[in-house]
Amino acid sequence: MPEHRILILDDEPEIGQYVATVAELSGFESTYFSDPDAFFAAITVWPEACAVIDLQMPALDGIEVLRQLSAMKFRRPIVIMSGVDRKVLESARHFAKAHDLEVSDIVSKPARLDELRQIFERLRGSIHLLPTRAELADGIARREFQLHLQPKVRLVRDGEDGLSYVPLGFEGLMRWQSPSRGLVMPDHFIPQIAAAGLGAEFSNHLFDLALNTLKSWNEADIDASLAINLSASDVEDLSLADRLWKRCANAGIDHQRIIIEVTETAAMQHPERALDVLTRLRLRGFLLSLDDFGTGYSSLVQLQRLPFAELKIDRSLISDCTSSEHTRIIVKAIIDLGHNLGLTVVAEGVEDESTLELLQGWSCDLAQGYLLARPLPPERARAWWLAHRNMNGRPVASE
Ligand code: C2E
Ligand code: CA
Ligand code: CA
């Protein structure tokens, strides 16, 4: 059963108590705090609890609370409450989103009883949808996850009209084949895995799948590269590079075929530690790719210190290329910048030919997206490779 606990932070005791009572009426265990430190201590004790926070408090304002929850990698639903106007509440929601926090509702004070009841009912509904720590731990232990594979291609210009591509490899994207839930997508388990502290178990499962994939490709003479995604907790694990390298050596896999994708946000959470871990990976010969570029806040000077070989432009930018002149300018500038820093530039989320043509005109090196193929189960990925490896045809929506 999912845990039904709510931790409430509000400097006004009467309000805090009132919200706690309503939460209890809706079937939650709830605890109310007026002191932010006590609230944060409780979060570490109950990382699976949901949070209700007041935006305006004398000791610490709500944005600071959000910042701290983000630093603690809090990944459970948050309800924001405040007497400030709706616009401020909305910008708090944006702030939270940019910091990987999940705001399930925003409430203007004074909150009406029926409004709060509805919010807590919704919250209960959404918690039921999220896997619990125990379920995830079982799923990982039983090896219920699969690696789907999305092709990554090099763009080439040939002849007069000629836009074509050469298949290079795949990005591995995890799916959870849960016996009770069916096929679960990463957005519904990656944050929960981080919140549940199961990062190391999960990445071990991922490495198993990645190495098995490469082994099966070797047997079938498929020389594709394989990109895998690491999360923030992996990037803090000093033993990661050695572990992965040894496992490749034992399995007889050339580690140069593995590309490691790390998001800007994960790399910047603890920049010194990330520099250490990523440099070790690079020294071990793995290629590093900076994922979701253009969505975070990191400075390019910092990024340049990290040993990346590749930069992936986030799909939110790519999908706006055809409709927004402003975005086109940004994307073109990122491609030039990447090239000036000696990086291979990848566009992800390419969904139509006109976007692909723009990217090609700006000398973007690689592309990935539904236009070329969706993430495919292993058997279909293999068939895609065999059908495309010798073909420099114009892209068609083949999958
Ligand atoms: P990501 O690394 O940015 O992966 C790309 C996501 O964009 C994938 O979603 C993919 O299916 C989707 N995508 C690809 N082409 C298109 C397109 O043309 N249009 C649109 N609209 N979407 C496209 P998916 O598979 O749901 O993965 C979501 C995120 O989950 C990934 O984002 C990655 O951050 C995370 N993730 C997936 N597998 C792993 C894993 O093994 N480890 C970790 N740490 N994170 C993972
Ligand atoms: Ca990725
Ligand atoms: Ca990405």
Short description:
The chain is an alpha/beta fold. The protein has helices spanning 13-25, 36-45, 62-71, 86-98, 113-129, 133-141, 190-195, 199-219, 232-235, 240-251, 264-269, 271-283, 300-305, 315-319, 325-340, 353-361, 378-388; strands spanning 5-9, 29-33, 50-54, 77-82, 102-108, 145-158, 162-178, 182-184, 225-230, 258-263, 287-293, 310-313, 344-347, 366-367. The strands form two sheets. It has an eight-stranded mixed β-barrel with strand order 6-7-9-10-11-12-13-14, surrounded by five helices. It has a five-stranded parallel sheet with strand order 2-1-3-4-5, sandwiched between helices.
Question: Can you tag this structure with a few keywords?
Answer:
399 residues, alpha/beta, Rossmann fold, TIM Barrel, 17 helices, globular, binds ligand C2E, binds calcium ion
Describe the structure.
The chain has 399 residues and is of the alpha/beta class. It has two domains: 4-126, Response regulator (Rossmann fold); 133-395, TIM Barrel, CATH 3.20.20. Helices cover 45% and strands 23% of the residues. It has 17 helices and 14 strands. It has helices at 13-25, 36-45, 62-71, 86-98, 113-129, 133-141, 190-195, 199-219, 232-235, 240-251, 264-269, 271-283, 300-305, 315-319, 325-340, 353-361, 378-388, and strands at residues 5-9, 29-33, 50-54, 77-82, 102-108, 145-158, 162-178, 182-184, 225-230, 258-263, 287-293, 310-313, 344-347, 366-367. The strands form two sheets. An eight-stranded mixed beta barrel has the order 6-7-9-10-11-12-13-14, surrounded by five helices. Helix 13 (300-305) links the parallel strand 11 and strand 12 (310-313). Helix 1 packs across helix 5. The longest helix has 21 residues, at 199-219. The model has no long low-confidence stretch (mean pLDDT 89). This is Response regulator receiver modulated diguanylate phosphodiesterase. Keywords: Phosphoprotein. One of its GO terms (molecular function) is cyclic-guanylate-specific phosphodiesterase activity.
